[in-house]
């Protein structure tokens, strides 16, 4: 079975890509509105892609009625945001923040999510997130006028204490239970894991 993307509608292309590129990590982004309202919204077109400097990126499309999402408006104005990651205890709350909230109603306040101050930016982070990365906007790329690719530079990390071995600089995998996005309202757990021995590469004969 083959498709040329040009033969598919935008919605059909979205369905093909999100049906096979999975699971996808979720950026649960907090941003700050003009009246001090803290916005939280999940984005699964997301990943990190560099460590020097630490860079992440996520895509924000417009609402169905054409309005820009609060996350983009806030980031364009302030130039900073926090990428919070999600684990199983927070998964339902993360999903609920994907609903339609007006700018004057902050998702964390409405849903009873605890906030904590960031160390280097004005935008608060989600206090219970397993990992949070304070970000300054590194670059914005407009895509066809209806989507923005937001690239952020991580300038400060917050890690839930029990998840990290400071001496080994390694996560306690048995304690960290991240959630991945599949498609539509479907998510996945990540506890069924496979470990392979180190790859040997080409062997000398």
Automatic annotation (TrEMBL):
Classification via Pfam families: Flavin_Reduct
Coiled coil residues, start to end: none
Cofactor: FMN
SUPFAM superfamilies: FMN-binding split barrel
Keywords associated with the record: Flavoprotein, FMN
Record carries keyword Flavoprotein: yes
Gene3D superfamilies, per database record: Electron Transport, Fmn-binding Protein, Chain A (2.30.110.10)
Domain Flavin reductase like residues, every copy: 19-178
PANTHER family for the chain: FLAVIN REDUCTASE LIKE DOMAIN-CONTAINING PROTEIN, FLAVOPROTEIN OXYGENASE
UniProt family annotation: Belongs to the flavoredoxin family.
Protein name per Swiss-Prot or TrEMBL: Flavin reductase family protein
Species: Bradyrhizobium quebecense
